[in-house]
Each structure stands twice: as structure tokens, then as C-alpha cells.
Amino acid sequence: MRQAMRCVVVQEVFPDGLVAQDGRLQPGDQIIEVDGVDMTSATHQAVCQALRRPNSVLRLGVYRERIEAYRTSPHARHDDLNGTPVECTEQGMFRS
Length: 96
Description:
With 96 residues, this protein is α+β, with helices and mostly antiparallel strands. It has one domain: PDZ domain (Pdz3 Domain). The chain is built from two helices and five strands. Strands 1, 2, 3, 4 and 5 form a five-stranded antiparallel beta sheet that branches. The relative contact order is 0.20. Residues 76-96 have low confidence and may be disordered. It comes from Portunus trituberculatus. It holds the Pfam family PDZ.
């Protein structure tokens, strides 16, 4: 039986902060690794402590769910929605 991940989810990125300037971390991202340490079972406090360590470079493993565009018909394309292209992110883990 597989155990569900319990991750810390990014709720907000402050517009004037370093994270916003970098642009890779987004609200909704799940932090699963900090500097090579698995955070999938860590408490919120443990993840915050890991993120606050004084490092010049922080390596994160992040899970971002793929967002599917709503389709009105089985043959609709992403750019068929009111003429506005919909950007979908890749599912999986990336390192920032």
C-alpha cells in the first residue's frame, strides 16, 4: 500500500521577494526536497527551518500539478478557448 505524500504547499509568493524575482516557484507548488533532503514527510516547521538556513544557493525539489484546459469538445485544442492560448506546465519534479 502506497502512503500519500504530505507536503508543504506554497500559498503565496511575495512580489518584492527573491522568490518572485527568480520566477520559478509559484503558488500551489509542493516542496518535496530541500538541498537533497526529502521533505515529503517533514513537518511544516522542519521545512521552514530548512528553507531559512543561511545559504547563498538553495536547491528545491518541487512538484507542480499539470493543469488541463477545459475542452468543450473532444477535438478542441488548447488555443481554441476564446482565442486565448492556455499554457500548461509539465507534471513532475524540477530542480530550481
